[in-house]
Amino acid sequence: MKYSIGIDIGTTTVKCILFGEGVQVVAEAGREYKTLLPKASWAQQNPEDWWKGVAESIRSILTESRIAPEDIKVISVSSQAPAVLPMTKEGEPLHDALIWMDRRSTKELEILEEKIGTKKVYEITGNRLDTYFTLTELMWFLRNHPDMMKKCHKILQVNGYINYKLTEVFSIDATHASLTQLYDVHNNCWSEELFEAIGGDTKIMPDIYDCMDVIGHVSKKAAEETGLSTKTVVLGGAVDASAAALEVGVYGDGSIAEMTGTSSVVMFGFDGLVTCNELSYLRGVKENTTILFGAMNTAGGSLKWFRDALYGGETPQNDAYPRINKEIEAGAKNPTGLIFLPYMAGERAPIWDPNARGTFMGLNMNTTRAEMLRAVMEGTSFALQDNLDQAVKTGIPIRDFICCGGCSKSDIWLKIKASVIGQEIKIPSVNLGAPGGLGYMNAAFMGEYKTPEDASRAALQIKKIVEPVEEWIPIYKELYQIYLDSYQSLKSQFAALAQIK
Amino acid sequence: MKYSIGIDIGTTTVKCILFGEGVQVVAEAGREYKTLLPKASWAQQNPEDWWKGVAESIRSILTESRIAPEDIKVISVSSQAPAVLPMTKEGEPLHDALIWMDRRSTKELEILEEKIGTKKVYEITGNRLDTYFTLTELMWFLRNHPDMMKKCHKILQVNGYINYKLTEVFSIDATHASLTQLYDVHNNCWSEELFEAIGGDTKIMPDIYDCMDVIGHVSKKAAEETGLSTKTVVLGGAVDASAAALEVGVYGDGSIAEMTGTSSVVMFGFDGLVTCNELSYLRGVKENTTILFGAMNTAGGSLKWFRDALYGGETPQNDAYPRINKEIEAGAKNPTGLIFLPYMAGERAPIWDPNARGTFMGLNMNTTRAEMLRAVMEGTSFALQDNLDQAVKTGIPIRDFICCGGCSKSDIWLKIKASVIGQEIKIPSVNLGAPGGLGYMNAAFMGEYKTPEDASRAALQIKKIVEPVEEWIPIYKELYQIYLDSYQSLKSQFAALAQIK
């Protein structure tokens, strides 16, 4: 028997899955770790916590499955991205890793806006200049910890650290490289221009491995710490979103999926290189493919806020969401005529406005709670359509629209969403997320399938197809326009509100 | 002993108060009646219901007080306004009365907009062309019931009908005349130009009596029906708002009062004639005085909506408002940074936008219900300030600000309001409303005071003065500007929303 392991290092947990043949899940394990928030807008994690979580999880699945470690042929690792972790030549972290949600490098952002300009950065990297990326965070280290950075041999991404712990090789995979905002996506190399701008050197970057390239074998030390065999090889791995996209069939032109939980991300697959100023660029697992994605901060988050602030909250004994769905189905059977802007924590794609805030408009004396709840579902669906509009501008033909994640459990929400986007929505039977995509990569590596995409195609099963409600489509078209106009109208008031206090 | 009676014919009830010397309340009685809504936007009442309510109420206070009817020296009547009640020469109603909330005359409004123009109507009457007034409603009768109108001898206002039933004299008091939108306020006469425009004749209007002019004595028939003495005289009376203004001390320059319940009205007293396009014009009880007023549709109404839609509603066992006040005082101690537009049923003054709707903006993941409740109080206070701004444009010096009505029971609301307007707010001990003002008129008529204003001055007692919170004032100044801008920004989206469906 041949087995493989997929490990995803998320923002809050490590998730580790042991796959058998046919990408069957044999065993699973996970561990949580902490995000340290030493100051407002700072967010960092201790890389030892990741490794501890990984080692324990691997031990756990080995114990549970009772398989022989040497039967595990391959491991691949995905992670939250991007991050910055400065390492010594000896493989010791010099500092906690700054993770994607860290916002300390605003000063560096300003300097770069001045020095190179947002337009140029977008042209080189395919992404908007933002503290989200490695670029400004690495610059923060260089400006604020110059002595420490003299000892820095390489900077790693999150999976890069785990790969190092497993193989003792410094690496970065191609999808993570695409998200550093230090990579020249047109010339396929680190950008000398950007490194010069931040006062750094491209030598600080590890070698780039493609997602399915072999980095090395599990080291003796790692084998001891995890129970793995030194015969097992480790692949380059991927950004969690790239792996998750593969899992739900987003690769190549016209494949679209929304993963909708507290926040939502909608991903568009393209052949070749495509960039779009309103969406984020990420390389697909397959070489020469693109994933554009739009991240919406508070999709499910908006409903969660409503639940907690205005619906009496939630206890383990009291699952509010099924009741919310019923209340809408009984009391708000049709489009509400309310507009909800779901910008409860500012918004990323496509408006990129940290000052935007949640807004209900159109309330009247007969407006019910059920209608407001429905308006939340409508508003988040409009936000999705707003991202679809951006993707359509690039000329993408919309083929399949797949929806997964916690919010895809609500039938009424899906019906509203299908009617807003004017297209059927497919719900997959299984949704393993990033580890599932890693499983496909591993299966292709082991020769079970020709490519990871073939594995995805073979495995993806659609549980349910939700159709739009014909009568709602034209109404939502009109309401969507008002939704767009309302944000544009209120934009400067949001900015003014942000100035107060 | 000398007694008098004040009778107010409101929109839903007649309220009848027997006053003794010193404007002391001796007995009270009231009766409800129905508003008939035969079609959407139609609103009419049967004048016999008013009279029945008045006659029963008078009998009730006579029985209760056991005073001799001939000791009642004078009666005055105030009413909801304006209305249109076509009468035969013999004193029979030809139709139900169209009351102020009737909106059937929209076609007539369009014709007049075309024919004379809104500007001209404002110049003649001091009020914006609106279906609220007698003008378009009388035109509706003339256009839609031409045969019936041939039999029409006079049209009456609501108190005019009661005065007729009491004295058999057709009359209209000067304050009601000022609110017909048929009266030329600059030349003090019915406007020939407007009557010509609607195809009517000024002869249809009854003689104008000033508020304290004697119309006549109680007729024999009326005495039989009510138990009153034929020795009692009946005065001209007033619009309920004019009488209510007098009661809370609004007469002459700089006196301001807000009566805040489900809807709010803020009234500004002026010497002489003053008009303002954003506020409504009404003559004061005293000759050659003005009351400008701004009516806000849903002040308390907004909080009531929140209570019913999002706060679990209200039962007799469950008085929500004290709990709401406590929740705000505990959980939203400071300005919220939210903006609430309190336009839950469109808005009258000062924006005059039937399409405007309730809006919460600035919501974030930490926004609590307490903050949203406070935002409702803040938003309605901003709406008040918006009306104050209009009055200030006329050059009025703001002297006293008095607040009465149901919403003045909330201390936190008053504190917010005082901080928004940047001025202390006085709460009167007693608030009888319009009948109180009638009591002052009666007392002056009987010689107890030189003028009704003297009576008001002598009687008005301030129970409580609420001071602004110094730290809140500058924050509310900034938020108020955003409030104003938000409505201006959303205006066209409100119009677009109104077009849907």
Largest interface: A-B, 40 and 40 residues
Largest sheet of chain A: 7 strands, mixed
Average predicted confidence as pLDDT of chain A = 95
Tell me the total number of β-strands of chain A.
Answer: 24
Q: Mind telling me which CATH architecture of the domain at 3-241 in chain A this is?
A: 2-Layer Sandwich
**Given the structure, what is the number of helices of chain A?**
17
The Cα radius of gyration of chain A reads 23 Å
CATH homology group of the domain at 3-241 in chain A: ATPase, nucleotide binding domain
Percent helix among the residues of chain A? 25-40%
- Termini separation of chain A comes to 64 Å
The SS-based structural class of chain A is: alpha+beta
- What's the assembly state of these chains? homodimer
User: Which residues of chain A form runs of ≥5 with pLDDT under 50?
Assistant: none
Roughly what fraction of the amino acids of chain A lie in strands? 15-25%
Q: Give the class-level CATH name of the domain at 3-241 in chain A.
A: Alpha Beta
Q: Rough shape of chain A?
A: globular
List descriptors:
globular, homodimer, alpha+beta, 501 residues, Nucleotidyltransferase, domain 5
Kindly describe this structure.
2 copies of one chain form a homodimer. Chain A is α+β, with helices and mostly antiparallel strands. Chain A is built from 17 helices and 24 strands. In chain A, the strands form 8 sheets. In chain A, strands 1, 2, 3, 5, 13, 14 and 15 form a 7-stranded mixed beta sheet that branches. The interface between A and B is large, with 40 and 40 residues. Strand 21 (358-363) of chain A pairs antiparallel with strand 21 of chain B, so a sheet runs across the interface.
